Structures are given as structure tokens and as C-alpha cells.
Amino acid sequence: MTDRPSWAPQGIDLTVPxxxxxxxxxxxxxxxxEVDREAARLVIRAMPGVTKISQANRAVMxxxxxxxxxxxxxxxxxxxxxxxxxxxxxEVVHRTNPGAHVVYVDNDPVAVAHSRAxxxxxxxxxxxxxAAADLRDPRTVLDNxxxxxxxxxxxxxxxxxVAVLHLLSDADKPREVVAALRDVLAPGSVLVVTHATLQFGxxxxxxxxxxxxxxxxxxxxxxxxxxxxxxxxxxxxxxxxGVVPLPHWRPEVPLSDDDDPAVLHGLAGVGLxx
Amino acid sequence: xxxGRPGDKLRRFAAIWARAxxxxxxxxxxxxxxxxxxxxxxxxxxxxxxxxxxxxxPASEVGTALVAAHCTDPEALPSILGVIDAYxxxxxPPGPGLDNDECRVRCSRLQHAVAVGFSRxxxxxxxxxxxxxxxxALEAQNDAExxxxxxxxxxxxxxxxxxxxxxxxxxDGQVLEVxxxxxxxxxxxxxxxxxxxxxxxKSADTNCARGLNGELxxxxxxxxxxxxxxxxxxxxxxxxxxxxxxxxxxAGRPQYQLALIEDVTERRGLLRRLRHQATxxxxxxxxxRALFFERLDAALADDTPTxxxxxxxxxxDGFKAVNDSLGHAVGDxxxxxxxxxxxxxxxxxxxxxxxxxxxxxxxxxxxxxAPADVTALAERILDALxxxxxxxxRELTVHGSIGIxxxxxxxxxxxxxxxxxxxxxxxxxxxxxxxxxxxxxxxDARAITRHGLTNQLxxxxxxxxxxxxYQPLVGLDDGTVHGAEALVRWCHPxxxxxxxxxxxxxxxxxxxxxxxxxxxxxxAARQAYxxxxxxxxxxxxxxxxxxxxxxxxxxxELVHEVARVLEDTGLSPASLCLxxxxxxxxxxxxxxxxxxxxxxxxxxxxALDDFGTGYSNLSSLRWLPVSVLKLDRSFTHGMRGHxxxxxxxxxxxxxxxxxxxxxxxxTVEGVETRTQADHLRALGCDTGQGWYYARPGPPxxxxxxxxxxxx
Lengths: 274, 711
Hints:
The complex is a heterodimer of chains A (274) and B (711).
Chain A (H helix, E strand, L loop, with lengths): L18 H8 L7 H13 L3 H21 L4 E5 L9 H8 L4 E6 L2 H14 L5 E5 L5 H5 L2 H6 L7 E5 L11 H11 L5 E7 L10 H10 L9 H5 L5 E3 L5 E2 L20 E8 L1
Parallel strand pairs in A: 1-2, 1-4, 2-3, 4-5
Antiparallel strand pairs in A: 5-8, 6-8, 7-8
Chain B lengths: L5 H16 L9 H20 L8 H10 L7 H16 L8 H62 L3 E6 L4 E4 L1 H7 L2 H6 L2 H5 L4 H12 L5 E9 L5 E12 L5 E10 L1 H15 L9 H13 L6 E10 L1 H8 L1 H17 L6 E5 L4 E7 L4 H16 L2 E3 L2 E3 L2 E10 L5 H17 L4 E4 L2 H6 L3 H13 L3 E10 L5 E12 L3 E3 L1 H11 L2 H22 L8 E6 L1 H4 L4 H12 L6 E6 H4 L4 H12 L3 E7 L16 E4 L2 H4 L8 H16 L3 E4 L5 H10 L3 E2 L10 H12 L1
Parallel strand pairs in B: 11-12, 14-16, 16-17, 17-18, 18-19, 19-20, 20-21
Antiparallel strand pairs in B: 1-2, 1-5, 3-4, 4-5, 6-8, 6-11, 7-8, 9-10, 13-14, 13-21, 14-15
Helix pairs in contact in B: 1-2, 1-4, 2-3, 3-5, 4-5, 12-13, 17-18, 19-21, 21-23
């Protein structure tokens, strides 16, 4: 097969399930097609409670965003933002600081088109924008005109890598990717990472079933341990309580037994750049 | 029944409700926020429950609001309704006047309304989200198609604007599309389209190209390159570099063939022109030395035992005279005319005529059947030159001398073959020219190539390989030695002693004569000074005669040189005589004679050498600055015997009396017998020179001769 030149466009294939539309389904959304739902149902069968992981992931992101805002950060770079359904970063941020800047990044053209529509409808494109770029090539992120337009890397930025690093295989060199982004961040910047794991949670053997589904998408799903996730914070100072299961990261209400233990399959951590 | 203010009761209900629903929602609200969200909804439920008249419809807003808060999980609905069913009447009592049954009925209808609102909102929301994702997908697709179209447009522009010809064909070779450059190259689109790819790639080595194309179409190779010629629509030839590549589909299966065609016609033409220029003589258009050697080398490289070669080395006789007398322009025209005639002598493709030097040509016959084929070629050449060349209104006659080498290829090398032919050509020239000679290994071994000698001249002078012999000039009346003529010899390290005939012409043609002549003059003058100092008797001391070449005569330093030599050696000018040939002075103007007059003014005598061999313009003797006439030996031939030729006697007698009348002395060369000497003495000649008196010899021989003579 021939390699296309970099300026030749990628086609759109709606017969292939999309990670972001599967995630939307987990969150109860209808921004998805049957091919996505079919894949999502298979994941649910392999790992019951996965929808709760998505919610817990969303919740911990909000807590981390508020943590960054408490530190005075007013710039947010959310890479792998997916389909914006509700409770997106800019909604959370603008509720408190209407002047803050948020840039979403995704490599799924449909997610990008949808994000653009949502942001245009909201009518605040001077505060929030979507950039089509691929995390696996950090230069495409940093050189994107929307990123350059809204973010000032001379000041602290909150970099959100929420539920996205587990879509990068080791061949994609995720640690180098994170390091490349880290290098442009000003001191005082915040890194938020959430990541799938089998180390905790009730279905430690779910790997194969989940993996098989994600093989059918354009991205794999790589489970990593707490120790492996900690390596992404090279050059950052991990804030308390470190890398922990999603509900354990600075909970706002006491943990209760009602919570689905499946949420322990997600890890969260926040680091500060010195 | 719970106690407390109505507001507290509502909040209690909201708390219970939130605890039941929250785990099933996908909301990003915290539980407390969610509880706050449910409070107004609880109030709506309470108000609706007790409203009079009862209207359950406002409760549908509650279902709508819950969907808006992302309570979209179908599992949530039973929890939503279950809490209303169990606790609403308890925490929001409708007040007096409504019995329990009525309350239960109202609560049930209220739940129905909530369910309606929930379902309607969920349906609306689902449809809206589906629509928005479809719209996003379409937009993304449009974007991608737009980008694809732009990309296609770029590729199309590259395709159309490319300087190389591009053609796409299916696997059967059917041409599907060609670009403009391709059309231009072939001169016609239909011609380019009509061709099958197999035809495109067909080359001289057809099988090879077909094999390559087969491999390409089968997917066994991804590309190959060939160079080949096509016929354009106007019949002219298009030379092209063709690169054929395979285009595969997404699954890697062969799909199309792509041909990139680069027009190299001009480049090839240029290369051929350059090659022609490098291998042909610019003046005559004949193959040049380089091409001749290339062919000769190739012929010699084929060492098939039976293989032979033939080479005819041609040098024009008398070309130099044409060049000197009529100018180079005429000389060039003559060479062109000669070349044209030589071309006609080539009768088969294995023959080649080349110009390898000024007036030197060579004909190569590769693999002649018999030696006679080569001599026939030489004869044709001589024959072609036999008719005069009508040029510049004259009939110019040039002949040629040809040296032939032929024989088996064996292990000869080209340079040896040519040298042998060169030497042989000289033999033909020595025989008088206008003839051919065939190389003879024995003769070759002895022969001296003028080429070699010419190259060795300068170093020979340095290495002192020249020496001088002196031939006495004897007074005819008393037999005394008046002096001697200095004759230069070359003691060649391999060829032995060479006479002036063998190298003076070479020295003249290369200009080395100036240095050699100066050396002879110095040596001879020094020798004469020795004679002068040893001279005891009365009368003038012996003088020395030194030959001056015409080239030396034109040398601007000549007068200065002569004066310097006299100065350096201390020789009396009267003891030096410079001999100049009659031919060198024919047609000489005053400018040419001026140095001779200046030399004569120094007191040096000038002898007119070889008198009688040329035009012998007697009237010129009046004004030439000469004091001695040297009669050519041809005059004395007829006087060797007693019965002398009376005509010769009369001629010589006439010349002598004329010379004496003009105050000139007369020396006769070639005196071989006493009879000759007697005749010449009787005719009044002054001096004789020849074997009768002495052969040329070393300088001390003159001394003994003189002593003997005196004795």
C-alpha cells in the first residue's frame, strides 16, 4: 500500500466503531451509530460497570479542573476530548471563570465536527475551540492554529490527558509524547491523567474481551499499572494522593458502599510542573 | 406522617429521591448539586398533587427535567416513579378535603404524566443527538471530501502540468489516460492513447521488456526502466526513458500500470553530436585519429586466429609547398578535396578513412580477405589523387606516399601498427613518392622514424651527440688547402652515425635548426681559430665554410649571433664563409637579404651553394651579397672521363668567366677524379671539393693534408 503524502486527507469510514462515540454511549448519549453501540455492548459484557467508570472519570476530571482553577490556571488543553455531550471542561470552567480559554483536541474527524458545532452553537469561539490533531504527533497539536490562537504557553496551562493515554500503545512512545508536551509547559502548569488499569477493580481478567473490541476500532486499549502511569509524571510533582483509583482522588463526598467497584478500573493522578 | 415545615418536607423528599436516582444518572453534577436540582421538581409534584381542579400535566415537566439532567438510563425510570409512588403523598400531603383513595389516584396519574414527560424528552433528546452526530459525520465527510477534492486537484495539476509524459493503463495494457506532456511527445493524443502498454515498453530487446512487463502486471515487481524509441505522429523518432510502475489497490492487488516517459531525444541527439565532434575531423569531416585508433583497437582486440588487418598510411607529397606558396586557406581547401576523393576509395563498411594529422591520412581495412584487397585500396587512393585538383583557378597536383601494413592480427598493438606504416610510408617517399610500399619487418627494424628523431633532437644537442666533420676546399691551381666545409653529423645512440640529410629537414621543420645551426657555427669557428693560430706559412690561414639554413636566414638574431661568435672565438671574419643555397635566395626581397649584407659587411664571405640546381638567375648575381659561387656536382658529372661533355665545359666556362667578371670566386663540388680536376683548372675554377681530394673527416686531418700538400 502506498503512503499518502501528509497533506492528503484521511477518509471517513463510518463502518468502523469510534472510541469517542463508544464513550458517548457509556455516558448515556445517543451521539453514536449502531456499529459503535454494538462495540460498546461487547465491552460492557466483558467489563460490567464500564459505564460507571466513564462517569467516575468525568467526575474526577471535574475535580481536577477545579483544582487547577483554584491554583489560578485559566488555560486548558484537553487532548482526546471526544464527543462533547455535557459537563465539558469549558462548561465547568466558564461557570467559575468566563474569561478562561479552553482548547479541545481530537483526531476523530466526526468528533471534531461535532465539537465545532457545539462550540459554534454556544457562540463563545473566542474562549473555546476544537483542534484536529493527533496526540501521537505532539507537533501537530502544538503547531495547530487554534492551539496557538487561544493558549499562551508562557503562562501555566492545565494539560488534560483524560482517558486518552491508554489508547497509545508502547510503539507510539506515550512517555516521549507526554515529555514533548511537558517541555513547552510553563512552570506551575498542571498535568491531569486518567488511565485504564486492571490492577484494581473486580474484573482483572477483562483485558482480552475489552482488547478484542478495541482492536476493531482504530485504536487499541492498553491497560497500565499505577507504577506505569506514574512514569508519565516525569518532570512533574505528583500532588496528593498520587496516582489512585478514580473515586479516591480527592473525593468531595465520603466514599460509600453504593459505588460500583468497577470504577476502580480507572486511575487518576495530577502533577504540577515545577 | 413526618413532621415539620412544608419546605423541610420537600427537601426530605428530594434527598430520598436523589439517593435513589443518582447512581443511575450520568450527570456530572455532584450528589448535593443533584439534590438541589431535584428540589424545584419536588415542589412542582407537590403543587400538582394538591391543585384544584386536578391537572396532572405539569408533572410531565418533571420527567423532561430529569432527562435534561441525564437521567437517561431506562433503569432510572422505575426508581424515579417508585419514590414518587411511595413518598410523595407522605411528604407533600395534599391537605384536607382529599381522601386517601383520591390521593392514590392523583399520585398514579401524576406518575403517568412524569413518565410521559420523561419518555417524550428522552425521545426528543435521542433524536436530537442522533441528528447532531449524523450532521457532524456528514460535515466531517464533507470536509474530508473537500480535502480529498483539493488533494485530487493538486494531483491533477501535477499530472497535467508535469514535464514528463504520464500514462495510466489497466493490467491488460489498455491505455486509460495520458497527460498533455505525453500527447505533446507523441504529437497526437490518439496516437498515445491507441498504443498498448506492451508496445510502449517494447524495446530492441523485446523479450526482455515483455518479461519485465509480465512480472509487473503479475505484481512480482513494482517497477522497471527501459530506454527506447517510438515513432511520433509525423514519423520522426522519439527517444524516451520509460519507467513503468505498478499501482496496487488498498489490498495490495495489482490494479493499474503507470508509465512515466521522459523525452531524451534532444539529449541523445546532443550526445551523438558531441560523440561525432569528438571522433571526427572538423575540417574534412573524416573520422579523426581518436576514432581510427578506436576502430583499430577494436579490430586488434578480436584475436580470432584467422583475422587480419590492413592499414594504409598516406602522406601527401608536396603539400607543404602548396601551403607555403598559396597559403593555409588553399591548403585547407586542398585537404577537403583530398578527403572527398579518399572517401570514394572506401568500398565496403569494413573500410575506414581517417585524417590523423596535417596532411596525413590513414585507411583501415578490418579483416581484408587477402593482402591484395589492401594494396587495391592503396592503388585506389593513388589513383584518386592522380587527377589535378582545380582550386583557386589553378590545377594543383598532389600525390601521395603510402605505407601499407597488413597481416594477421596476432598480438599487435595499434601504436606499433601505425609506426610500422609510418616508416613504410617514408620508404615510399624516399623512392620518389606517388607510390606505395608494403611493410617489411627487416626494413622496419633498421628504419628510423622521423618521429623518433624529431623528438630526440633537443636532447641530442644537450647530450652532445652531434659532431662536425670537415671536407677540405683545395686550390685548383696549386693544390693547397684553402679551408674546409663544416658538415654536421649525429652520433645517434641506437642508429649510429646519421648524415645531415637524415635530420636537417626534421630540424628545419621543427625549428630546432636554429639551435643546431648556432652550435655548428660556434664549433666550426672555434676550430677555424685553432687552424688560424697553428697557421705558419704565408698566405691567408684556412677558412671554414658553414651552411646556413633558410630558417636561420629568417631568424632575427642571425647577424648578432655571427658577430658574437667572431667576437667570442677571436676568429678573423675573413676566415669564415657562410653558405646559403640558391633556392633560399630565389625571390628574396631586400628585407631577407639585409642580414646577409650586414654579415658581408662584417668581412664574412657569403657563398651561393648548390648553384645551378635551381633557377640560376645569373642577373641576380649582380646584386646578391655573395663572393663565392659553389657549382653543383651535376656540372662535373660530365667531366669525369677524358672525353668531357663539351656542353658542360661550355656552361661551366661561361659561369666562371661571368663570376670572375663580377668579382666572385668559383668553387666546384663533387670532384672525384683527377681528370675532373684538370678540366676545372683549365676552365679557371678557383677551388675544388670532393673525394678526389679528401672525404669529410676530423679537423686534425686537415692539418696533415696541409702538411702533406706543403711537402
